[in-house]
Amino acid sequence: MENTKNISGNFLKNCRIKYGISQETLAGKLNLLGLNIDQSAISRIEGGTRELYDYELYCICRVLEIDIKSFFDKDLISTLPKSHNPLKKEC
Q1: Residues 31, 63, 26: CA angle, nearest 5 degrees
Q2: Among candidate residues 6, 57, 15, 20, the one with its CA nearest the CA of residue 35
Q3: Residue 42 maps to a domain
Q4: Smaller CB count within 10 Å for the chain: N or C?
């Protein structure tokens, strides 16, 4: 987890699957919104090996009909590595 570039990837993957679309279809819908992203970038976001920019998150939430506030849920934030998580105090 320490090398993860985002904590939202797994949550996004679950939402995409629940919505019932492939990574390729999601990429196509995002491109229609003007976001230049391809299937491999979505795969890397979902796998946590690529950063997720705020404007990308906004567009993904629009396509998948997700409330962007979901990404500020304490359970999702608690998955941050210790070195990046202000909620986990080191003794």
Answers
A1: 55
A2: 57
A3: yes
A4: C
Which range marks the domain in which residue 52 is found? 9-81
Closest CA to 7 of 42, 34, 45, 41: 45
Flag residues of the chain having pLDDT under 50.
1, 85, 90-91
Q: Supply the CATH number for residue 23's domain.
A: 1.10.260.40
Q: Where are the beta strands (DSSP E) in the chain?
A: none
Q: What pLDDT score does 91 carry? A: 39
Q: Residues 6-20: pLDDT tens digits?
A: 878 988 999 999 999
DSSP summary character for residue 80: S
